[in-house]
Amino acid sequence: MAKEFILYHYKPSTALAAVFIFLFSNGSLAHAWFIWKHRTWYFLPFLIGGIFEIIGYAGRFISSRQTPNWATWPYVMQSLMILLAPILFAASIYMVLGRIIRVVDAKALSMIRVNWLTKIFVAGDIISFFVQAAGGGMISNAKNDDDAKLGERVIITGLIIQLVFFGLFVIAAFVFHLRIIRAPTQKAEAVWSLLQQYMLVLYAASFLIIARNAFRVIEYIQGSDGELMSKEMWIYIFDATLMFLVMLLFAIWHPSRIINRSRIAEGDVESATGSHSMVTFWKRGTVAERQSSR
Question: Which CB contacts under 8 angstroms, 24+ apart, belong to 141-146?
Fold first, then answer.
């Protein structure tokens, strides 16, 4: 006879849930402000991801107040929202790379045609989103451990799909980065310092999301009796903290510094970066430094 499915294997922490509601709320407000101020509408999925995180940890907060008689709906809320939020973060990260390539007029240096770059990776995200959502729904409606394990397998499949696409994205970003270093375009040289900063930010954010997804894969492979599901601290260390760091990274290095809403198509680098002083500095000093280093 299959064992009864238990929602939590520990008492959810009220304090930790409240802390991350606060952190993700402030992060989301900051990103909402940047999106409105700079009209960076392509970054809306990122904001929605932040809202998903808030809802998810609100669900955990509610559950923490119900111990040990947990209602199903807060568990479903936290399970799905926290699981799916990073997919929305990833979608915006894909869009940032495509726009950077356009800003520096380096379409020829991309290993994937820029018109297809975002579409391919976002399509992978959409597939992963629905697979993980289906698995989360199966776990939420599970009557016993067997039902839950089936849902876990579906979620693992969705996470692996996301890991594969994200791995390919990192390769595409790295190949572009190597090519632009070896053969910089004029517009890339005009924003060289910012370009290098934002490529490093993309790598850092990608590493954080990949690490989080790897944690989730291991968590679901271990199952409900495993170490990672049996102790609450792991989800806060390897999911909540890592995803907040992604939000923080893009709050400090918001893409609007290098990508402007309307200048990409016009090829106006100074307007696209919103930084005439950076361009002037480059023309006066950094070119000479690069030439002397050669």
Answer: 142/5, 143/4, 143/5, 144/2, 144/3, 144/4, 144/5, 145/2, 145/3, 145/4, 145/5, 145/224, 146/2
136, 292 Cβ separation under 8 angstroms? no
How far apart, in Å, are the Cα atoms of 243 and each of 8, 26, 115, 292?
A: 22, 13, 28, 41
The answer to whether residue 283 sits within a structural domain is: no
pLDDT tens string 39-90? 999 999 999 999 999 999 999 999 999 998 999 999 999 999 999 999 999 9
CATH of residue 165's domain is 1.20.1070
Which residue, chain included where needed, has tokens 């629905």? 130
Distance of CA 257 to the CA centre of its chain: 19
- Short-list 253, 254, 230, CA closest to 9: 230
- pLDDT band of 245, cuts 50, 70, 90: very high
* pLDDT the model gives residue 174: 97
Domain assignment present for 121: yes
Segments forming the whole domain that contains residue 243: 14-184+196-254
Q: Of residues 281 and 29, which shows the higher confidence score?
A: 29
Distance, CA of 246 to CA of 46 (rounded, Å) = 10
* Amino acid of residue 55: I
In this predicted structure, the answer to whether residue 288 has a pLDDT above a threshold of 60 is: no
- 170 part of a folded domain: yes
DSSP structure class, residue 4 = B
Whether residue 4 lies inside any domain: the answer is no
Q: Which of 195, 291, 227 is nearest to 10 (CA)?
A: 227
Q: How many domains does the chain have?
A: 1
